[in-house]
Amino acid sequence: MSKIKESTVQLKVSDGTPMQAFVVKPEGSPRAGVMVFQEAFGVNGHIKEVARRVAREGYLAIAPELFHRTLAAGGEIAYPTNNDFSAIMAHFNAITKDATLADTQAAYHWLKEELKSDKIGCVGFCMGGSTSFTANSHLPLKAAVSFYGSRIMQSFDQAPEQKGPLMLLWGGKDQSSPPEKLTELANALKGKDYIQAVFSEAGHAFNCDDRPAYHAASATTAWAMTLGFFKAHLA
Fold it and tell me: For a Cys staple, 123 with which of 95, 145, 148, 154, CB 3.0–4.6 Å?
């Protein structure tokens, strides 16, 4: 297993708000860079572990704190009990398209400067899955992966703007991404380089092994697909 080194950095965002990010560097020269976009609970243990897994594959990983305008640096939000999401709503609702564009651009440019290369991709989960979709609509990414980015279903206007190869991973039991919406999305993505996969036995958040929704078989396969996608497009 490759050695990795963790740190935090402060990024300059175009709107003037400082943004902290968790960074994991692999041993030796990184093969490429990957932005890791959080769920709606901050850059917590799960997201940090995803960044570590990415770095162990030889990529320079950065997980920007997308709630930096409303949550203190390093802040996390506990996973909900009894489906009570009230603790995240103020932060979640503060995420606008303009804010997402500014934040992803800051992370992208940090990676580009560190790598002296534009071999950069992204992976995101839930809110972060939608962030991947938005990032790929305006940045020249080489690969973008979205795990259950259900916010994408609110509007498909960014579909024609997708720049790099895109992979969308969904849970078949996730009510926030019904089959008819996935069909609409596929129609909106016609002519684009994309993969859309549905894991029939999985629900929302199936990749997070810190939550009851975790579905091991689906998560294992989805992660293998993600690494294969990166290898194909970030090599």
Answer: 145
Q: CA-to-CA distance for 216 and 185, rounded, in angstroms?
A: 26
4-79+86-234: CATH homologous superfamily?
A: Alpha/Beta hydrolase fold, catalytic domain (3.40.50.1820)
Indicate the helix (H) or strand (E) that contains 61: strand 59-64
d(CA 173, CA 198): 9
Helix, strand or coil, per DSSP, at residue 17: coil
**Which pTM does this prediction carry?**
0.97
What amino acid positions are annotated as catalytic residues? 126, 174, 204
Closest CA to 46 of 200, 229, 223, 201: 223
